[in-house]
Structure formats: C-alpha cells, structure tokens
Amino acid sequence: MTPGVLYVVATPIGNLADASPRALETLRNVGLVACEDTRTTAKLLARHGITTRTIALHEHNERRAAAGLIDTLREGKDVALVSDAGTPALSDPGAWLVQEAHRAGIRVSPLPGPSAAAAAISAAGFSAPQFLFGGFLPATRAARRKALQALDVPWPVVIYEAPHRIADTLADLAERFGPARELAICRELTKKFEEVARLPLGEAAGWLAERPERCQGEFVLVLAPGEPKVEQKAVDPDAVLDILLEALAPSEAAKVAARITGVPKNLLYRKALERAK
Fold first, then answer.
1. 127: how many CB neighbours lie within 10 A of its CB?
2. What digits encode the pLDDT tens for the residues 234-250?
C-alpha cells in the first residue's frame, strides 16, 4: 500500500481571508486534519464549508498523537498538519510529527503561506540579507536577560511575545541594547486592530502605555541589526617581545610582553635571554 502524504499547511495568522485556495483544497481533500486546537481550526473550516475530521495535536500530546497519525499515513490516508495560526512547527507544535514522518519514509509536502515572522520582517523595513528568528523569550526576567545577550547580532532579530509580558520585554530590550536602537512593534498582524510602529527602544514603553488596549493581542517584535563585531587579531608574543627588546632589558621586556599577550612571564624571559645571546 502506498503511504499517504503529510501536508504541512500554513493557515491565516488573523484574517481568515488569507487562506490560500490550495490550502483550502488540501484541507478539504485529506482524510484527517491534525490541529493545535480543534476549536480554532473549526472556525476556519466552517467558514469555507470544510467537513474534514480533525484531531488534536498540541505540545502536551504531540508524541502520542504523532504515533497514531503515522499509522494513518501508513494506511494510505493523507493528513494535513495545521497550527492555530501561521506555519506549523515554527514556535508551534508539529516538528515531532514531521520528523517521524521522514523517519517512516512518508512524503512531507509543505503548503507555504502566512507567517507572522515573515510578515513582521516585511513591514519592519530593516534591510539585511538575513534575519535571526528568536521565537519566544524565556518567561522569567533573569533567563530573558541572559537570552538577550545572544541576540546582539548584525542582522534583524524577530521575537514573539505574549501581551502579559510585552512591557517587561520592552524594558529589558531597552536596557540591553540602549534607547537609540530601533524596534518594529507589530501588534495583531492582519487583524482588525493591527498596528505596526517603528521607533527607538527608548520610546517603546511610552508607545505601549499611550493606549490601554495596546497591552492586548499578539506581538511580533523586530529588533534592528546591531553593529558588526570587529574580530581582533591574535597578538604574536614573539613579535611583541622582539620589539620590546630593542629598548628594554630582557627581564623588563618579558614583564611587559606578558602583560600585553597573557603569555607567562617566565617563558618570555627565557626567550628574551636566548635572543640576547
């Protein structure tokens, strides 16, 4: 029996009209739709008159549910994988099922479409050949601050954030990267109350507090690229020692060279005596 196909289907991130004709056709024709939340997906399916059976696949049951779905695929039935919004397996469940499908020799076919990260990058206006997807930052402040240390890179950084943590995250970003670094705040993308604002980090807290409703909804943040880091060339201790020996006695040259290069003074002193002979 020929195995079925696992379709990884991107669905709207807010506006249900963003569902592509191909995505809807696939959801209509597969044998089963694996959903992060069946209630959320039911709204999309009902809008387009799709009656395909759904099954829950979320972070708490993914491995157990994936085993049953692999059996379904082996039986020759096609399965569509969707998340609540956007592209599955991108800060959403689904990666385990896709991995198991590959291991089982089952064809995986992506249906590209809405992505909050791609939408935010396109609306931010930071010109760069690449970007870093940071996803959701840690919930605790200490862990979040530590995570931010790794995000000082010379290209844009995309961060997802929940409404109840957005104020704290904006404060931590401003503290870590300074008030002048720019940030694009994308709130409720594609929905009725969508807002996209690009401003210095020093103004982000004020923008958020300007209207109480701004603390609600889903957020995608795009941090402006940092300055490229200049790699420091390694210091050649022998070259430093030779230069110092032109003006200093061996013991003093070894002492100064050790401070410059970090090489043990005794080792440099022996080399200095050999050069002095």
1. 7
2. 778 888 888 888 888 88
Q: Please, what are the domains in the chain?
A: 6-114 (3.40.1010.10), 117-223 (3.30.950.10), 237-276 (no CATH)
Phi (first) and psi of residue 6, to 5 degrees:
-95, 110
Rounded distance between C-alpha atoms, residue 117 and residue 236, angstroms: 45
- List, for the chain, all residue ranges whose pLDDT scores fall below the cut of 70: 1, 229-233, 277
Query: Are residues 264 and 274 in contact, defined by beta-carbon separation less than 8 angstroms?
Result: no
Task: Provide the mean pLDDT of the chain.
Answer: 93
Q: What is the rounded distance in angstroms from the CA atom of residue 36 to the CA atom of residue 251?
A: 71
49: region left, alpha or beta (phi > 0 left; psi from -120 to 50 alpha): left
Name the phi and psi angles at 236, rounded to 5. -85, 110
d(CA 82, CA 92): 9
Give dist(CA 234, CA 260) in Å, integer. 11
